């Protein structure tokens, strides 16, 4: 922003968001009042102050890596607070960072986060008590009693806090953006569930060191210092991931610059491929490599002559150049270390299940699975995109056309997986019409090499290398 300029006013939240925030505030007040009724105010003021300071530090040093990995020491502090200072104390420890942490978020956002913190903190303390959690840890004898009276109730409280967190977030996101509630909540649970269990274990160790082991406030150093060291590692990882994303963005921009109708194509294919991979049970590592391959599947198309733009059919020489673009893409990317597991998907994404594709004419399951997934995502996006010379089909119609190609052009199992994925997710959003984005000033192609009809044309022309058709 230019220095001295007046920043634009943030859009006011809608009535649904304001209502949701109001209900969250009311729930937080009710939960805190119930905690006061059942356990009273915190008696250990020193512990309350120490935990509140730790909560503030945790929020200030919080790290999120590309919206996927988060270092949430605050969750550990909140769990410890539910045992050491009770429900009201836990509400204060959880809510205080949202009130005092200096940032530029809107008042509505800060109000919701503060109320959510108070609600989750008091809920965590109440669930701990309802699960039989001990309030006087000095009276406990032996590790067995410690596990049953502290560890087990604390883990139950941890689960309640985690579920409450994702359910509250899912609700406010639905109210603000109308993003479907259930898929959003399921995604949060699947990506952060194991981490939350880990926070519960660490919170239990924190409490054990503080009271039974008589380490006191110094236990915060023993427990949280390794997490803040891990923060540094997360930052380094985040910087590396950001560099990867910048590399992807540069290649995608170069690929799509020559045809405004291709704008957003790579991102849409990547999203469809990732969803399909999830439906097929891909691991996180496989999903990441698949996403890279799908984002860069057409990078070699920069080698295809520009003379093809503006015409509906290529010449024989241009057909040959088209069949070589997957190999050209691999040649461009082969020396980039983090893309090594993605190269096979890029090279073979135009192979056909019947062996009549290119560049090698691989058949059936000899085609790498990444390539088969990208082929289906690529064809779906081509069928549902409005392009000169091609009609845009509705999603269900496009899926039906792809299903009809199962066993010839495409892997039928992957087509079914895409169908399952699209039952859980809406199709990726499209960019504005190309002409409105500048397509009227750039000569665009009436030819779409990703369209299934083009694959059929190439299969009939038999211009691929001699290896075509070999299994």
Measured as a percent range, the helix fraction is: 55-70%
What is the 3D form?
elongated
Cα radius of gyration in angstroms:
28 Å
* Biggest β-sheet description: 2 strands, antiparallel
- Based on secondary structure, the structural category is mainly alpha
Question: What amount of the residues lies in strands?
Answer: under 5%
Number of strands: 2
- The CATH architecture classification of the largest domain is Orthogonal Bundle
Strand order in the sheet with the most strands: 1-2
Number of structural units classed as domains: 2
**End-to-end distance:** 58 Å
Top CATH class of the largest domain: Mainly Alpha
What does this structure look like?
The protein folds into two domains: 15-237, Orthogonal Bundle (Arp2/3 complex 21 kDa subunit ARPC3); 257-461, Hypothetical protein af1432 (Orthogonal Bundle), CATH 1.10.3210. Helix content is 64%, strand content 1%. It is built from 17 helices and two strands. The protein has helices at 15-39, 45-60, 73-84, 86-100, 107-130, 142-177, 181-210, 219-256, 265-279, 284-295, 316-333, 343-347, 369-384, 395-404, 412-424, 435-439, 452-461, and strands spanning 63-65, 69-71. The chain is elongated and about 85 Å long.
